[in-house]
Amino acid sequence: MKQIAVAIHSEYVPGLAEKARRFVEALARRCPDSVVLVGGYWGHMKDVVDAALAVGLKVVAFIPMEREEVRLPSGVIAVRTGCEYRCRSVFMIRSADAVVVLGGGVGTAIEAFMAYAMGKPLFVLVHTGTPTDKLKEAYPEYFDTRNAVRVVYLSDPEEVAARACAAEAGAIKGFG
Predict the structure, then answer these.
(1) CA separation for the pair 106, 43 (Å, rounded)
(2) Please, are residues 101 and 113 in contact by the beta-carbon 8 Å criterion?
(3) Which of 50-54, 74-78, 81-85, 169-173 has the lowest mean pLDDT?
(4) 3-166 architecture in CATH?
(5) What residues contact residue 16 under an 8 Å CB cut-off, 6+ apart?
(6) Segment 72-91, tens digit of pLDDT
(7) Helices 85-95 and 106-117: crossing angle, nearest 10°?
(8) How far is 166 from 176, CA to CA, in rounded Å?
(9) Rounded to whole angstroms, how far apart are CA atoms 1 and 70?
(10) Cα separation of 104 and 146, whole Å?
(11) Span 161-173, mean pLDDT?
(12) I need a labelling partner for 28 at 20 to 30 A (CA). Which of 4, 17, 126, 167 fits?
């Protein structure tokens, strides 16, 4: 069983819901026993959760204290972290075997940087129309000189799912 954190925009971006659905459906075909980890149930995170439940994947939502009132669908495991947005992301990324960035803003970028700092396999979908598309320009392979994790940039959601399923899990000790 592989736990895959999905970082995605908390607001709506044209075309991103379809890419999220394609990623989740491919994930279910390639890793049917995987667990999808998300940071909530709003924006495109809702699209990921709904798609995952529709194809029978398990979902764990790490809820920040600011959004504890959010109503989750039946079957979603809620972890009410008791801390704010960025803090809840630490729990989500630390729990992941691999991290997938499907496009987003600063919160999604922070989760990508956390994954890198923790040595998690990191896969970034590009051509999403979101600010995280710029990560590839700024950091073509690594986020810093430690070369902790080679960041894999892909333009096809199905390929992102395939690579995340095949990724070797395990954090690199001493980074952060």
Answers:
(1) 14
(2) no
(3) 169-173
(4) 3-Layer(aba) Sandwich (3.40)
(5) 8, 9, 44, 47, 102, 103, 128, 129, 130
(6) 999 999 999 999 999 999 99
(7) 40
(8) 24
(9) 27
(10) 25
(11) 76
(12) 126
Q: What are the residue boundaries of the structural domains of the chain, listed by start?
A: 3-166
Token couple for 19: 């890419």
Starting at the edge strand found earlier in the chain, the sheet holding 98-101 runs 76-80, 58-63, 35-38, 3-7, 98-101, 122-125, 152-154
Annotate 4-23 with b (16+ C-beta within 10 A) or e (fewer).
Answer: bbbbbbbeebeebbebbbbb
Q: Which pTM value belongs to this model?
A: 0.94
Q: Is 135 exposed, middle or buried (CB count within 10 Å of its CB: 0-12, 13-18, 19+)?
A: buried
- Selection from 101, 148, 144, 107 nearest residue 124 by Cα: 101
**Over the chain, what HEC string results?**
CCEEEEECCCCCCCCHHHHHHHHHHHHHHHCCCCEEEECCCCHHHHHHHHHHHHCCCEEEEEECHHHCCCCCCCCEEEEECCCCHHHHHHHHHHHCCEEEECCCCHHHHHHHHHHHHCCCCEEEECCCCCHHHHHHHHCCCCCCCCCCCCCEEECCHHHHHHHHHHCCCCCCCCCC
Contacts of 150 (CB under 8 A, 6+ apart): 141, 142
Exposure string over 104-129, b if 16+ CB within 10 A, otherwise e: beebbbbbbbbbbbbbbbbbbbbebe
